[in-house]
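Slide 14.
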Amino acid sequence: MIQSVESTSTLLLKVKNGNAEAQERLCAIYIPILTKWAHGRLPSYARELSDTDDLVQNTLISALKKVNSFESVREGSFLIYLRKALLNNIRMEIRRSHSAIKDSLDVATNEMDPEASLLENAIGIETLEKYESGLLSLGETEREAVILRVEFGFEYLEIASAIDVNSANAACMKVTRALAKLAKNML
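Slide 15: predicted structure.
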């Protein structure tokens, strides 16, 4: 959860203007959030080449190098941008690991794969793919609200600020409706 006196958009503007201290503050805010989110998403077989902390740091460094092309629409936009970039890096690392060790997973069985990530084992690869696909079927604000609540554990007041709605109740309603829509799209 973002506990910052200065808004992310203010810090991003300062980073765009070359303020190294603002860049450090952004890293201090987002590294713990992204590390917690990414925990368990990188399967053990992929960790031999890289670990979660490395991926988080590399993702954030890469994003900060491209900060001049990033346009912050709402307070939560940067976190959603980082999540997408980190998820892409995790997928790339998994593909790299697969080709490096030439290991094929037997997805046809319902047994838990000891080398799958904790998240994959908990909900299954197929459900995870349906979830990601379902997220894409939501509007941008709905997707942000769901991700902030479900994946990052934000409180409704924090979500309200991040997606620019008036109250925690409005954020709760947005999340509830978006989750219902997501569930329907996952069928």
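Speaker note: DSSP finds nine helices and no strands in the chain.
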